[in-house]
Amino acid sequence: MTRDELMPALGDRSDSKLRVKQIAGHIYSRAVDDFQQMLDLPQSLRDELSTSFQVQPLHVATHRHSTDGVDKFLVHNGDNEVYECVLLPYEDRVSCCISSQVGCPMGCKFCATGLGGFDRNLTAGEIVGQYLLLQRRSERRISHVVFMGMGEPMLNLKNVIKSLRLLHDEVGLSYRHLTVSTVGLVPQIHELAQEQLPIHLALSLHSPLDEVRDRLMPVNHKWPVAEVMQAMRDYHKATGRKITIEYLLIKDITDTPDQAHELARLVRGVPNVVNLIPFNWVDTEQGFARPDRERVRMFRAILNSKGVNTTERVERGHDIAAACGQLAGQHKGAFGSNLGRRKGISPLVTLS
């Protein structure tokens, strides 16, 4: 709830404006998860709120800690339809990766989530709840959020937009520290642009060639490369934000020199950054593999020689399957059932 939505919940109290400010501060600024811990509220109000509302609807099913400091949580809101969020501490900041759906309907061939299928969208409360849950487990403030967990955010745009506003207006995060990733749904990219939110928009491109992207990402059959790149240019014009191109390097498939040259041509003329992501292992029918370091260096060198601003994703959480493309929670729906039939993807056991 926003503060405006909290106000009617307090009824006709004469001090409702003050109490809403206090409640919002506890929930969003201090990540308090129990009304009884809000000691500046009258006891009678704490009791009343405790009987009518939940501060934190999420429960932790499993928690895994990586050797490089990453924490992955499998969470649910009581229905055992679970999804994953990841806490990513760095020296200069703390970031987190959150989900927008239970599973994902996009069917990308290289992604553990996409291989499993889809059950439902997450509510804005479940989305922001992931941030608050992770904040309670972080010694430092989480300043950056990426919508790169399970799901395609653009297919849940209403709830994603509300969660972005909550993270900015109530939690106090900068819009410039919020990143939404998409496989390239053109109408929704235009819809998001109309919101004029100065967030980062990241396109999961993964190949500049339609014949390659068609094999990897079913979405490309509907919105091919030229069309989705035009939508990204339109997004830049509408918001003034540079675009981010997420590019997965798969051995002998997307890491070829001709694709590096074509990618450089494709992004010419629009402020951008290309983020290279060496493939993180997921058992796939195609037997995808990670390119060796020399191949990654070659691809990046070509982009750099063409003046393309290029970064490489720092691999974190690989040993607990928390890296890019590896999130695949287990639950009772179609998504979990599909995972159970796939060799090499080990569903996590939901704890009571």
Key structural traits:
12 strands, elongated, 352 residues, alpha/beta, 12 helices, disordered C terminus, single chain
Strand content: 15-25%
Mean pLDDT: 88
The termini sit apart by 28 Å
Shape: elongated
Helix content percent band: 25-40%
How are helices and strands ordered from N to C?
HHHEEEEEHEHEHEHEHHEHEHEH
Major sheet: order of its strands?
Answer: 1-2-3-4-7-8-9-10-11-12
Structural class: alpha/beta
The description of the largest β-sheet is: 10 strands, mixed
Low-confidence regions = 320-335, 338-352
CA radius of gyration is 21 Å
Tally of separate helices: 12
Structure characterization notes:
The chain is of the alpha/beta class and 352 residues long. It is built from 12 helices and 12 strands. It has helices at residues 3-9, 16-29, 43-52, 112-116, 124-136, 157-171, 186-194, 210-216, 225-239, 257-267, 293-305, 334-340; strands at 59-65, 71-76, 83-89, 94-97, 101-103, 118-121, 144-147, 178-182, 200-204, 243-249, 272-278, 310-312. A 10-stranded mixed sheet has the order 1-2-3-4-7-8-9-10-11-12. The chain has a two-stranded antiparallel ribbon with strand order 5-6. Strand 3 (83-89) and strand 4 (94-97) form a beta hairpin. Helix 7 packs parallel to helix 9 (225-239) and helix 10 runs parallel beside helix 11.
